[in-house]
Amino acid sequence: MENYSWIILAAAAQAFVTIAVLLLMAARRRRAFTAGKVGSDAMLNDRAWPEDVLKASNNYKSQFEIPVLFFAAIAVAVATGITALSFTVLCWVFVAARLVHSFVHCGPNVLAPRFASFLVSVAAVAGLWLIITKRMLVGL
Question: Got the DSSP string for 30-71?
Fold first, then answer.
């Protein structure tokens, strides 16, 4: 399989992480609502939800923060022909770190491993953009 395929698969994997968190959040919200733990006003007030719903909701929101830089890096890489093995590896490091972050955030929410996985994902996406920047500067 070519590196392009592995890069695109990493993007798909990250998209599936986001979709999985969305489905988890929806299931938790439904359960809380049907159990009578919240009223219809909960949609207007995030703090009205139980803790397990807030964890999933907050994690879902975080899927539209740092991962945006990841998806943008992949789009630039595909558009400019970057297929370096180091780029591909960093893509998968990013996805693995975000997966760990989601498991911890939606589960026990222990700060140390959650923050560590966040830092790894930030370092990976920074590495992706350094590779892109280097490629663009060398190509000038």
Answer: HHHHHTTSS-GGGGG-GGGS-HHHHHHHHHHHHTTSHHHHHH
Q: Flag whether the pTM goes above 0.85.
A: yes
CATH (one of 3.20.20.70, 1.20.120.550, 1.10.287.1490, 3.30.70.3280) for 3-138: 1.20.120.550
Q: Which residues contact 31 (CB under 8 A, 6 or more apart)?
A: none
Q: What is the mean pLDDT of each run of 10 residues along the chain (140 residues)?
A: 88 98 97 90 83 96 97 96 95 98 98 98 98 88
- Which of 74, 80, 67, 81 shows the shortest CA–CA distance to 128? 74
